[in-house]
Amino acid sequence: MVTEGKHPLQQEDYHLIQDYMLTKAVMCLATNANLVEWEHEIAGMQEASGEQWLRRNAMLLDYTLARILAAYGRNAHLAEADRAGPTEAFVRSFVAAVAAQDHASAEGLWVAANENTTQLTGKRMPSTTPLLIRVRQTAQHREAELDLDGVPDEYFPAQFVS
Q1: Which residues contact 51 (CB under 8 A, 6 or more apart)?
Q2: First vs last C-alpha separation in the chain
Q3: pLDDT above 60: residue 121
Q4: In the chain, where does DSSP find H-type helix?
Q5: Is 94 left (phi over 0), alpha (psi -120 to 50) or beta?
Q6: For residue 108, is pLDDT > 90?
Q7: Which class for 90: exposed (0-12), middle (13-18), buried (19 or more C-beta within 10 A)?
Q8: Cα distance between residue 118 and residue 120, in whole Å
Q9: Could you give the CA distance from residue 13 to residue 11 in angstroms, rounded to a whole number?
Q10: Residues in contact with 74: Cβ distance below 8 Å, sequence separation at least 6, in sequence order
């Protein structure tokens, strides 16, 4: 349900929130935004989210980035990465869970990647950085084409507690 006067990121509507995030991300990709521009957009989402950032929206942002990587398909592997590194293992596992629509696994991976960060303020979650790097690197390759029709469905928790 949409509450008038509230920013989309403060709503309870998961579809609206994720649509907003996907739109922001696709705009950044379409304009070849640099890292500073991406960080500006993320900081704006964090600020607009208020207390919902740590409770919900930080995870939805990462889920949105993983949906984009899943839509790139095989071309998402183009980023240079240490296949054995812990962040690379997270990216590969998280994107695979998102692509498979395995919400429980995706959520578990995200929680594990962000352990001990429940009190973070003014910072991106640790899981966001490797996902953002991969999205930006993949988008810079000419042979990588984002198939918006191939973006997996949004995340909807089995039970949301606000």
Answers
A1: none
A2: 13
A3: no
A4: 14-30, 35-49, 52, 58-72, 86-99, 103-113, 128-140
A5: alpha
A6: yes
A7: buried
A8: 6
A9: 5
A10: none
Instruction: Return the pLDDT at 162.
Output: 40
d(CA 68, CA 9): 19
**66 vs 160 pLDDT, higher one:** 66
Band of residue 161 on the pLDDT scale cut at 50, 70, 90: very low
As a whole number, mean pLDDT of residues 97-105 equals 95
Residue with tokens 């995340």: 155
Length of the chain: 162
Report pTM: 0.87
Retrieve residue 55's tokens: 């409770």
State the burial class of residue 139 (Cβ atoms within 10 Å of its Cβ: 0-12, 13-18, 19+): buried
Q: Which residue has the tokens 């949906």?
A: 67
CA dist 150 → 28, 72, 75, 145, 154 (Å) = 18, 8, 13, 11, 12
pLDDT score recorded for residue 83: 58
